Amino acid sequence: MKRLRTILQYRYTFKYLTLVIVSIVSIFVILFPKNTKYTGSETNIVGVIKQINIDGNKLTMLIKDKEDIIVNYYFDNEKEKIKFVSELELGDTIKIYGELKNPSTNTIFNGFDYKKYLKYKGIYYILNTMSIEVVSKNNNVFYLIKNKIIKRIDSIDGSGYLRLFLLGDKGGINSEILDIYQSNGISHLFAVSGMHISVLIGILFMLLKNITYNKRVKYLYASIFLIFYLFLTNYSPSILRASIMFILNAVNECYNFKIKKIDIVLFTFDIILIINPYIVFQISFQYSYIISLFIVIFNRKIASVSSKFLRSLYISYLCFMITLPISIYYFNEVNFISIIINIIYIPFVSIIVFPLCIMCFVFNFLEPVFSFCIYLLESSNLFINNIDMFKFVFAKPSFLLIFFYYILIIMMIFNRKYIYLFLTVLVLHKNIIYFDNSLKVTVIDVGQGDSIFVKLPNNSSNVLIDTGGIVNYTNEEWKIKNKGYSIAKDRIIPYLKSNGINKLDTLILTHGDYDHMGESINLVNNFKVKNVVFNCGEFNDLEKELIKVLDKKKIRYYLCIKELNIDNNKLYFLQTKEYDNENDNSNVIYTELNGYK
């Protein structure tokens, strides 16, 4: 034990170990990449249900057979939905018939790549099924407990947030609310992570206080609890990191190894990398690990701050800065007000909301108090989200720029004089589009319909022609989804922001059919638009709805124009007369750009 303690205390042990493990794992992943065990021709699969999510008329399951597969099934009616909700449980073995499909890949520049996202989770196929048959019911005690916990949660009003805080399941929260949390820079509070672990372990230690005073026994119980909690949260990357780090700290303290905190953080990374090398590509792990790493590195600097308020402000500032490059890379937008509001929301969620969530799970009569806290949380975030002056759009950075950002951030934290260099780079990055003298015409994939973006040199003018649109044919409440798909919010706006574009000078709508302008209201509500151009002819119902929004936002609009100046160019509208239908009245636009007509 003495020799082991000496080895572990050596200052370079874990540095060398990390270097060796990263090298070996990288070589292994390159030479032996993980591939699917299926041929893709299978038409029926028998597997165990690991996750269930019902959203509107869609059932989505994660099942385990040879490997994890996502299963999609659409209910024909509400009665069938109720039947599935009551019959299917986690751990059940089911037989499903359908066709294996490859996940969709990215068809938008700089867009979200669903196929790659699933690959990093070890999922290679999606099965769209027409038939589900229960082979056997669950007999696994762990799934039995988890099912009882889920049923208990679902019996309480506000179950969406209970699932979110206790199980890390976002499926019950409206996607627009989640987008607002993301925009305000506080979404990390809703990812089950180290903060939640600290509260849960604190409660557990209080309960164990009257049972045992033995420190090793307490840590043993806590470690067993965390392993089970990992199962409950489907081995969330942030919980995996926090749990392994807690267990290593427990071993370190119980056996007096005197391992430095930074070495425990490195050893945690080594273990996780061995368990799942692809986890480093998941955004929740990146946020969780890099925050814990930097807080340990700058622990002395944090401790040197005198007052509690200033220390909270400094931690919020530190967390904001070290996650800034990641936020820019994935979301292309940063809300600088999050530095301030995190000081309010972190204690509000960690001291009030999350403990109240646990108490509400045990004592459901506390649900009104919990709901009131959630109301405060949502309404205040809706208000803050309307403050646009602190939101800045950044073009998608290269990996070289991200690396350079981190060098500057570290230099700046150690020596404040480098803040001017950091701000200079940040401002240049923010305005890089003004240095781009190229002219770009991009046809954006919106499915049926059209959407064409024209960017003139040096950001002198940005024009979007049509938005596309998917018709929603249902108004039945049981079919409505929490997570609705929007071409504008999920495709067009992310593409624009990834290029550093924060406004449209002109939105041109060729005509009023839904597949050409159906996303225009979503676009106008979620992105800055200065002018809108309609085609000739009378306004249809969809156009009238858009005009109401334009009037409310005081956005200028025009119809049946003949030409439009865009910087030193002109768009000529060639339609010469009005017809009796939308398609024939479409705007027909001619222009000459860079010598091309």
Task: Please characterize this protein's 3D structure.
There is one protein chain. It is built from 22 helices and 16 strands. With 597 residues, the protein is α+β, with helices and mostly antiparallel strands.
Topology diagram in text:
Blueprint: H1 2-9, H2 13-31, E1 44-55, E2 58-64, E3 68-74, H3 78-87, E4 93-101, H4 114-119, E5 126-136, H5 141-154, H6 159-167, H7 175-184, H8 194-208, H9 215-232, H10 237-254, H11 261-275, H12 283-297, H13 299-303, H14 308-331, E6 333-335, H15 338-362, H16 367-385, E7 391-393, H17 399-414, H18 419-430, E8 440-443, E9 452-455, E10 462-465, H19 487-498, E11 503-508, H20 514-517, H21 520-526, E12 528-534, H22 541-553, E13 556-559, E14 563-566, E15 569-573, E16 589-590
Count of β-strands? 16
Structural class: alpha+beta
Quaternary form:
single chain
The proportion of residues in beta strands is 15-25%
Termini separation comes to 80 Å
Helix content: 40-55%
Unreliable runs: none
**Basic shape:** globular
**Estimated radius of gyration:** 27 Å
Major β-sheet, in short? 6 strands, mixed
Largest sheet: spatial strand order: 8-9-10-11-12-13
Overall residue-averaged pLDDT value? 90
Number of helices: 22
